[in-house]
Amino acid sequence: MKSCVLVVFLVSCYTRIECDESGDGNTVAEPSGVDPIILYAPSKTEQPPPVGPVPCTCGVFLSGQFTKNSQDPPKGHPALLHEHPDPFPCNIWGNKQCTNRCLDIIVKHLPNSPTILCGSIDRDCHRERAYLFIKNCNNTWINTNLSAGREYCCKDGAPIKCPIL
To answer: Domain map of the chain by residue range?
Structure first.
């Protein structure tokens, strides 16, 4: 099963990204001048909850997966998931450090976001934005309210031009 990940956020430069052709869920991004990093689209099967503190985890969700200004967690799986090995403090400062680390990773790996995003989700989307969520210490998604700043439209796993209504 082919899967890709969204790694474009907040910047409009582009670089190369490879999609997972093998179906193992791993995707390697290799932009010039940056060490490769493993990014992956999460498994569609439920994972057991982690034991102990949750490390800094980045997740990109589409606007259709959550209610704006709500404390409810996003629905479904993120289009992008990345877990950092470094622990951060379990407080507001640690959450900010986690958010900044996620942004550092995302900004370094800037692909063709519509193609990557549409290839990594399992549904069509119409005028949805990509938002960064984090987990730090707790197994709860925190909405950073940071958006890619553009709308995505996808049909059958491919990007399409968003129709003007």
So the answer is: 26-159
